[in-house]
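User: tokens in, sequence out, please.
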């Protein structure tokens, strides 16, 4: 039989359709309610958030970098200036294809491949998102015009006017004032992101680095309205930045130039201090360099030439150069002997040309191989007799020598505001035991007494020790800043003054220093005889290459860079010290023959007037005149 035919159930289908329509209607209502809820959430609950986002698409906050403080010498001569410059900036996030944009810049401005590498390096350096990065400085009018014409090819590239650091004195103050450079990635992590927003340079060395916080200033900002392409339409609000504080230095440009002229192109260092105030009057490290290329970015080739030069122009000899002080420390060793009571001004030692320790055959030679006979303290200093100071060092011992020399600033940083200064080395028993795991030998004490051996000092330390001799132990840290924002720098950690058991103990050593230049047998009497005022000084020679026992120094057998360094320290006028000087001439060989004349030129430049006479403010006060004035 055929299967039965099923009749269509219209009622059932109608119920099915109605149920489906009901479910669809309920679903539609739910979706409409969800949509309405979402609209309510976005427009009411999150109104503040989304209105801010929308506003930010139209209004932007731009940082206004502060103007860096100026730096002047003591007389108001500009040392560090801010010069207007047009820079080419690039915002990475708006540039699109960076390589294509950089290629276009090089093509438009007709630059070489080195410039493109430099651009890439600057772009890679640390920066903040959407912050324009200067890739090229000091654009010419022609370069600005070329950029303007081809602006459509350079998305994210703009020409911006800015102030760029400039050093009009160039190499004269490169080692003291230092320079600013671009902020690198490590510095960016340490700096306040708000305070340095929009700032691309920071102090790298010298005064620029030490006083960075004072020179930088405070950042400002402005709210601007922009179009969809980011172009500024108008300024809505502006808070002006606060400029950095100006700094007046203690340095004197005329004395600086005179000191450089006195070195006459030789490698060396000169430091001149005011022993009464600690002010650094001149600070010369030769050869020097022009710091201006470091501001905008020095080329790889130019930097390589400076870095690899045998003369090391980038090396700060004043603060980082370590040299044996040689005989220049003999007046300080004499003070130690007098205060410790192991000698008196009349103590005499017989000099046959050498010194021997008891029960020891080794001979420690005097520079005068024929000997000076009987030598007292005055002759020992003025004649620079090594035998006398061998004997004195043996009597003192290394422990007392270390303690006294440390009080003069050796083996420690002495400056108040010089970031790069190194501490030098004042050796001791403990130092040698820790460094070499060896005992201290008596012979090492002897050579320490004449400033040789392990001892190393900087020219700045020698100048400070000389200033302490001039001031009879009054400690004032050397400093470069005379005023910062109108205020004088304050030293909160000044070392204790050198107080001797007998204040008169200073006099024999100081008199010996005067007789170095004005005594009948002084080592620098030729310089003293030509001076119109009295100078107290001491010559020194620092060995670069050791000479074997029994051999003589022969300059013709020694390479020029292996010859002895020449040193000289002095203060003047001897009766009323107004300046203390330390001079080091690398491979100059003779302290009295080479370094002493350099010292005299520096002293004359500061103390003498145009007619070659001692200036009135440096004239010694006559006792009779003083007494009459008091009456």
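Assistant: Sequence out:
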């Amino acid at each position: 039989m055929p299967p039965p035919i099923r009749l269509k159930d219209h009622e059932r289908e109608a119920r099915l359709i109605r149920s489906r329509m009901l479910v669809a209607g309920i679903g539609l209502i739910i979706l409409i309610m969800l949509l309405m809820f979402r609209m309510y959430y976005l427009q009411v609950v999150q109104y503040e958030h989304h209105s801010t986002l929308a506003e930010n698409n139209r209004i932007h906050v731009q940082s206004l970098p502060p103007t860096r403080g100026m730096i002047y010498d003591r007389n108001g001569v500009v040392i560090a200036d801010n010069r207007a410059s047009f820079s080419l900036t690039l915002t990475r996030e708006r540039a699109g294809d960076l390589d294509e944009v950089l290629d276009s810049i090089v093509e438009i401005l007709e630059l070489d491949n080195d410039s493109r590498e430099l651009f890439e390096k600057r772009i890679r350096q640390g920066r903040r998102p959407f912050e324009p990065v200067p890739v090229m400085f000091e654009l010419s009018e022609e370069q600005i015009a070329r950029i303007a014409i081809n602006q459509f090819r350079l998305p994210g590239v703009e020409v911006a006017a800015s102030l760029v650091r400039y050093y009009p004195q160039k190499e004269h103050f490169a080692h003291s004032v230092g320079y600013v450079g671009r902020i690198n990635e490590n510095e960016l992590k340490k700096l306040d992101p708000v305070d340095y927003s929009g700032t691309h340079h920071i102090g790298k060395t010298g005064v620029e680095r030490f006083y960075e916080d004072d020179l930088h200033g405070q950042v400002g900002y402005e709210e601007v309205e922009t179009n969809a392409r980011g172009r500024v339409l108008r300024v809505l609000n502006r808070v002006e930045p606060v400029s950095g504080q100006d700094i007046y230095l203690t340095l004197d440009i005329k004395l600086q130039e005179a000191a450089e002229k006195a070195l006459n192109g030789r490698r060396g260092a000169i430091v001149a201090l005011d022993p009464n105030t600690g002010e650094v009057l001149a600070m010369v490290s030769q050869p020097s360099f022009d710091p201006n290329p470091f501001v905008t970015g020095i080329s790889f080739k130019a930097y390589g030439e400076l870095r690899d030069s045998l003369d090391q122009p980038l090396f700060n000899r004043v603060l980082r150069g370590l040299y044996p002080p040689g005989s220049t420390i003999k007046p300080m060793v004499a003070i130690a002997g007098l205060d410790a009571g192991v000698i008196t001004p009349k103590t005499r030692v017989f000099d046959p040309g050498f010194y021997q320790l008891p029960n020891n055959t080794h001979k420690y030679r005097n520079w005068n191989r024929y000997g000076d006979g009987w030598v007292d303290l005055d002759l020992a200093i003025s004649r620079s007799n090594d035998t006398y100071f061998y004997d004195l060092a043996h009597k003192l011992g290394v422990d007392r020598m270390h303690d006294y020399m440390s009080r003069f600033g050796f083996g420690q940083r002495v400056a108040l505001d010089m970031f790069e200064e190194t501490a030098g080395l004042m050796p001791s028993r403990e130092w040698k035991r820790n460094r070499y795991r060896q005992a201290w030998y008596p012979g090492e004490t002897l050579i320490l007494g004449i400033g040789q051996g392990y001892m190393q000092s900087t020219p700045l330390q020698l100048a400070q020790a000389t200033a302490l001799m001039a001031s009879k132990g009054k400690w004032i840290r050397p400093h470069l800043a005379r005023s910062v924002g109108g205020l004088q720098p304050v030293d909160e950690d000044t070392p204790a003054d050198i107080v001797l058991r007998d204040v008169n103990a200073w006099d024999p050593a100081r008199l010996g220093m005067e007789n170095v230049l004005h005594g009948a047998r002084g080592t620098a009497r030729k310089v003293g005889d030509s001076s119109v005022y009295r100078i107290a000084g001491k010559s020194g020679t620092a060995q670069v290459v050791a000479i074997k026992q029994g051999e003589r120094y022969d300059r013709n057998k020694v390479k020029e860079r292996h010859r002895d360094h020449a040193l000289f320290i002095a203060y003047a006028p001897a009766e009323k010290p107004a300046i203390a000087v330390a001079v080091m001439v690398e491979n100059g060989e003779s302290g009295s023959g080479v370094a002493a004349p350099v010292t005299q030129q520096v002293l004359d430049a500061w103390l003498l007037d145009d007619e070659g006479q001692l200036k009135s403010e440096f004239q010694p006060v006559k006792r009779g005149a003083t007494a009459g004035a008091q009456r």
